[in-house]
Predict the 3D structure of the following.
Amino acid sequence: MEDERNEPDQPYELTAEERRDIQADLDDLSSMRSAFSTQGVKGVVIACQDCGANHFYEWELLRDNLEHMLKTGEPRMH
């Protein structure tokens, strides 16, 4: 029997563990933003596993992307 979560027309249902992980990332992001924005840091650089390049994300964009994953179960387009 095929996993229904992989069907293209169905939204991806996050597992409880995936939801906790994303929420933990949001909590970490909030802490990092509080600590570093006072020093003028405007975001973070993340090494992309898909293309191998480093990508800069402003605080708000990264938060929006994580919240989008919580709502839809899918990351935003690369």
User: Anything to note?
Assistant: The longest helix spans residues 16-37. The CA atoms of residues 12 and 74 lie 7 Å apart. The mean pLDDT is 87.
